[in-house]
């Protein structure tokens, strides 16, 4: 066991209060970790109660049914398209996303530090920061084997893929020369407004994509034998095939299209001075976005399952 795994094990040990007989775990840890580490763990157990009151415990989180999760995903489409519509309406200063979006990431770091302090990225929230480390994963122990249907935290986040997709594929759609934040001084750019919407959109995309973890858990619970075989073989291609549902993907595109035309016709019917290409730009951006979002969600599902039996 490498030091990282030991760290994870220690964290798991002191934060999991839903435990079966302690003696069982002690025997297991002694054989797995060796006696020096065991001694260390026993010392740490003294602060278990402190951890408990500080809210670091990891509850048993059963996942909802696939139908319920898909409804949740569907309900997240309108907020995503709404933020996308607002962002498309803001002019982008040239070079704003240079160096892989370094300036945007600095902006987000400040927000994410505040968000982390308020517990936004805690266990089971399905919110993962772009600029901070994520919470340690779960590791099954003899007293908690994580039965199918119970959420299992893994180490994967799709946020690097989301950032890269956002900057390279989505930002080019944000080519409006005028801004819908009206400025009396005739200025065009409002960097804080732009980054604020970027951060909102990125967080929404990330949350939606990481719900893939519970989609994966539900699918695992519904097909334990086959998926376990693929996990044990490390066969990511077969896992991807097992979790893919093209009929559902078509439904997602249709819903996204409906939301997009609703938002764009709202702007047009209101007589807003949108550029003539506004409608088609928004539709193209939404299509690209959902295509990539499904791919990133699927990858999160695959990575989650690959670690499911850890
Ligand atoms: O609904 C599912 O079954 C999912 O896995 C989610 C999702 C999506 O991102 O919307 C991803 C992959 C599937 O091919 C279909 C849809």
TrEMBL record:
Keywords: Amino-acid biosynthesis, Aromatic amino acid biosynthesis, Cytoplasm, Isomerase, Phenylalanine biosynthesis. GO terms for cellular component: cytoplasm. One of its GO terms (biological process) is L-phenylalanine biosynthetic process. It is found in: Cytoplasm. GO terms for molecular function: chorismate mutase activity. Its main location: cytoplasm. It is an enzyme of class 5 (isomerase). Its EC number is 5.4.99.5. The keyword Lyase does not apply. It catalyses: chorismate = prephenate. InterPro entries: Chorismate_II_sf (IPR036263), Chorismate_mutase_AroQ_euk (IPR008238), CM_AroQ_sf_eucaryotic (IPR037039). It comes from the Eukaryota. This is chorismate mutase. It comes from Neolentinus lepideus HHB14362 ss-1.
């Amino acid at each position: 066991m490498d030091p990282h795994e030991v760290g994870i094990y220690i964290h798991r040990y002191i934060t999991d209060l839903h435990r079966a007989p302690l003696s069982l775990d002690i025997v297991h840890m002694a054989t797995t970790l060796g006696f020096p580490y065991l001694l260390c763990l026993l010392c740490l157990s003294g602060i278990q109660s402190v951890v408990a009151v500080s809210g670091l415990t990891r509850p048993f989180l059963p996942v909802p049914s696939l139908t319920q999760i898909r409804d949740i995903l569907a309900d997240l489409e309108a907020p995503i398209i709404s933020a996308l519509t607002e962002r498309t309406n803001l002019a982008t200063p040239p070079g704003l996303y240079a160096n892989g979006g370094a300036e945007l990431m600095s902006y987000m770091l400040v927000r994410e530090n505040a968000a982390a302090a308020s517990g936004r990225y805690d266990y089971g929230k399905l919110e993962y920061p772009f600029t901070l480390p994520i919470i340690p994963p779960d590791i099954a122990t003899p007293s908690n084997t994580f039965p199918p249907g119970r959420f299992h935290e893994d180490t994967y986040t799709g946020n690097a893929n989301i950032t890269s997709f956002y900057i390279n594929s989505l930002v080019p759609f944000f080519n409006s020369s005028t801004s819908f934040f009206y400025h009396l001084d005739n200025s065009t750019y409002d960097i804080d407004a732009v980054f604020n919407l970027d951060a909102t959109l990125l967080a929404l995309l990330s949350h939606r994509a990481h719900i893939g973890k519970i989609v994966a858990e539900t699918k695992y619970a519904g097909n334990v034998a086959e998926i376990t075989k693929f996990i044990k073989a490390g066969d990511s291609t077969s896992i991807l095939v097992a979790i893919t549902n093209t009929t559902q993907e078509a439904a997602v595109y249709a819903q996204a299209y409906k939301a997009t035309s609703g938002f764009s016709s709202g702007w047009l019917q209101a007589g807003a001075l949108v550029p003539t290409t506004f409608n088609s730009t928004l539709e193209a951006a939404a299509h690209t976005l959902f295509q990539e979002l499904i791919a990133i969600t699927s990858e999160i599902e695959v990575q989650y399952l690959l670690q499911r039996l850890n």
